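Lab meeting, item 3. Inverse folding demo.
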């Protein structure tokens, strides 16, 4: 490398020696001499190759030429692939396999975990580790809880300087008073017992239908109520896994931009789906061409987010969905964070960059969290499906349990008003 770097300087020096004090014509002559010498060497090399190939049949020469070209193309494709997979993260993962690096990383991890644990545990003033021998009075219980609640309030309550977002979505006390009254009414309910808690199932079904409408689903659209965005995403992935399994996919993968929520990774961990998180472009946006390159015959679905949690960007759902449709697979539009804000954005005078709902051909499922920008209590989310066939894959029912027929969202199978 060093010698290569020195080449231009050496050439310049030679040229200056050649031309020192000579008129331009002499310099040009020197250059021509150089060119002629080069051409002579080229001709001599060609003649040497011809001599070497003398007697070799032309078909063999042709075959060798084609083979070399193919090998070159293969090498270039390999280099391109290496460039793609050798991201900084991949290099980091490789380094982590080295025993010395692993030992250092394990030490650092233990140190960090220890300090995190200490940081939070040390602030748990007066923590109880056993059930108190004498019962606490109602006042004592309330005092204890109020203390903890006061400590949290300063983070989200605007009048106390709170500015928390992405965790608390509404700080209107009157709103939460109403929600509390509603929750009080249903505090003992168990919707698993359909007969006794009929109205809970109906509430859930009504919410699902409202979300289908907000996300422009037609009569075939449907959904399930879940405990939060993470569960909605897990159930959507389960539905795609089952759909893939029905067409013979045994090692499924899903492809999505790196900003897709960690809930997808959790789904991958639980359900045995490889989650292919594709690097973003320079502007931290989804790179659809890069997504396309990661799809293969084991890809069961693509996913995009509207908007994403890390940067607040809207992935190009129409492009991702069109790509999915062209490959005959599903596309999940994660609208957990956008929830009801997405649906009313246009009416509020700030239209989204593009549609993210079922009006987009190829969008087959959507997660939407009423417990975020619908100001519902935690945790409630819905996972919407374009049709019932896809939804079917994520249902679970156990028919032969001695404790009775254990339903899973049965009320939605048997046709509640949705
Ligand atoms: C885009 C997105 N998807 C999924 C989730 C997961 O939702 P939850 O925290 O309700 O499980 C979040 C949470 O912030 C999110 O922002």
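The presenter then showed the designed sequence:
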């Amino acid at each position: 490398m060093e010698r290569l770097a020195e080449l231009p300087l050496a050439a310049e020096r030679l040229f200056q020696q050649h031309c020192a004090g000579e008129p331009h014509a002499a310099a040009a002559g020197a250059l021509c001499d150089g060119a002629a010498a080069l051409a002579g060497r080229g001709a001599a090399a060609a003649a040497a190759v011809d001599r070497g190939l003398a007697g070799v049949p032309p078909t063999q020469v042709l075959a060798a030429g084609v083979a070399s070209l193919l090998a070159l193309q293969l090498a270039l494709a390999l280099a391109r692939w290496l460039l793609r997979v050798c991201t900084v993260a991949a290099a980091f993962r490789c380094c982590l396999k080295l025993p010395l690096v692993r030992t250092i990383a394990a030490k650092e991890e233990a140190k960090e975990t220890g300090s995190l644990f200490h940081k939070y545990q040390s602030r748990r003033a007066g923590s109880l580790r056993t059930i108190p021998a004498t019962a606490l009075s109602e006042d004592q219980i309330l005092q204890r809880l109020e203390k903890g609640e006061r400590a949290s309030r300063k983070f989200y309550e605007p009048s106390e300087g709170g500015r928390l977002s992405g965790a608390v979505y509404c700080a209107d006390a009157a709103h939460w008073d109403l929600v509390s009254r509603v929750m009080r009414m249903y505090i003992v309910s168990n919707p698993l017992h359909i007969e006794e808690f009929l109205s809970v199932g109906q509430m859930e079904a009504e919410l699902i239908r409202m979300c289908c409408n907000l996300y422009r689903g037609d009569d075939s659209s449907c959904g399930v109520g879940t405990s939060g965005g993470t569960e909605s995403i897990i159930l959507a992935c389960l539905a795609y896994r089952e759909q893939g399994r029905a067409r013979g996919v045994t090692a499924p993968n899903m492809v999505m931009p790196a900003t897709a929520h960690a809930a997808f990774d959790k789904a991958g961990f639980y359900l045995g789906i490889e989650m292919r998180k594709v690097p973003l472009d320079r502007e931290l946006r989804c790179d659809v061409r890069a997504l396309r390159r990661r799809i293969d015959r084991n890809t069961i679905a693509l996913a995009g987010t509207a908007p994403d949690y890390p940067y607040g960007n809207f992935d190009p759902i129409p492009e991702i969905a069109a790509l999915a449709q062209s490959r005959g697979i599903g596309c999940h539009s994660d609208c957990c964070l956008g929830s009801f804000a997405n649906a009313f954005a246009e009416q509020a005078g700030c239209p989204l960059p593009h549609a993210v709902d079922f009006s987009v051909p190829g969008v087959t499922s959507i997660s939407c969290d009423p417990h975020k920008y619908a100001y519902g209590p935690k945790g409630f989310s819905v996972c919407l499906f374009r049709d019932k066939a896809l939804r079917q894959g994520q249902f679970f029912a156990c028919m032969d349990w001695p404790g009775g027929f254990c339903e899973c969202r049965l009320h939605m199978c048997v046709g509640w008003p949705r």
